[in-house]
């Protein structure tokens, strides 16, 4: 979760920032932005409150920094879609990557969901700017493959939305999924072949 922007930090400074952002992830993903406090973040980070405020003067700044860092990570698989690759293989690799990220980073997924449900006050500019640009680029790649007859024709933006919704459901609604499936089930292992089959049948030509 290292921050690569701004002035170069010492090893200790970077370690402390990473601890603060990890503590913030725990606090925000559990309690939301309004429910989390700087005291909770400091306790989760193992640092004093003044130390936290030295690096981030406000809770708002901590939250925005964390969300921006997580969004970069969340979008990375989409940016790896290769327009020169085999279309169905590229889409399925993206679907698998999103499901794996939901499995490995459920707190991150829930934190992002919290932000969106609150109207995205810390991400408004990013959602309509860089995020939109990245999604539009991916949608254009998908549309080009469809126009070439290499993928079945569907709305590319809504295809992307459906991939987000379906894969992140297993992180955002983990308690519900596990309650319905009952003990002895691994939702992510069981979901993968179903999701793979769903998109292959939808997109194959």
TrEMBL record:
Residues 14-74 form the HTH tetR-type domain. Pfam families: TetR_C_3, TetR_N. Keywords: DNA-binding. InterPro entries: Homeodomain-like_sf (IPR009057), HTH-type_TetR-like_transc_reg (IPR050109), HTH_TetR (IPR001647), Tet_transcr_reg_TetR-rel_C_sf (IPR036271), Tscrpt_reg_YcdC_C (IPR013573). Transmembrane segments: none annotated. This is TetR family transcriptional regulator C-terminal domain-containing protein. Residues 37-56 bind DNA.
């Amino acid at each position: 979760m290292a921050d690569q922007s701004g002035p170069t930090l010492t090893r200790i400074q970077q370690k402390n920032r990473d601890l603060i952002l990890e503590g913030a992830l725990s606090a925000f993903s559990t309690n939301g932005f309004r429910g989390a406090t700087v005291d909770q973040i400091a306790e989760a980070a193992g640092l004093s409150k003044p130390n936290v405020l030295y690096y981030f003067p406000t809770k708002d700044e901590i939250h925005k920094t964390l969300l921006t860092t997580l969004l970069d990570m969340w979008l990375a698989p989409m940016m790896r879609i290769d327009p020169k690759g085999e279309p169905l293989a590229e889409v399925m690799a993206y679907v698998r990557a999103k499901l794996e990220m939901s499995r490995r980073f459920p707190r991150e997924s829930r934190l992002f969901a919290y932000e969106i449900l609150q109207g995205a006050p810390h991400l408004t500019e990013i959602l309509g700017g860089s995020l939109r640009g990245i999604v539009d680029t991916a949608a254009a790649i998908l549309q080009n493959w469809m126009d070439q007859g290499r993928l079945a024709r569907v709305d590319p933006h809504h295809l992307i939305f459906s991939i987000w919704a379906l894969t992140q459901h297993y992180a955002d609604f983990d308690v519900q999924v596990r309650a319905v499936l009952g003990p002895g089930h691994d939702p992510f292992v069981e979901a993968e072949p179903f999701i793979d089959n769903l998109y292959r049948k939808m997109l194959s030509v």
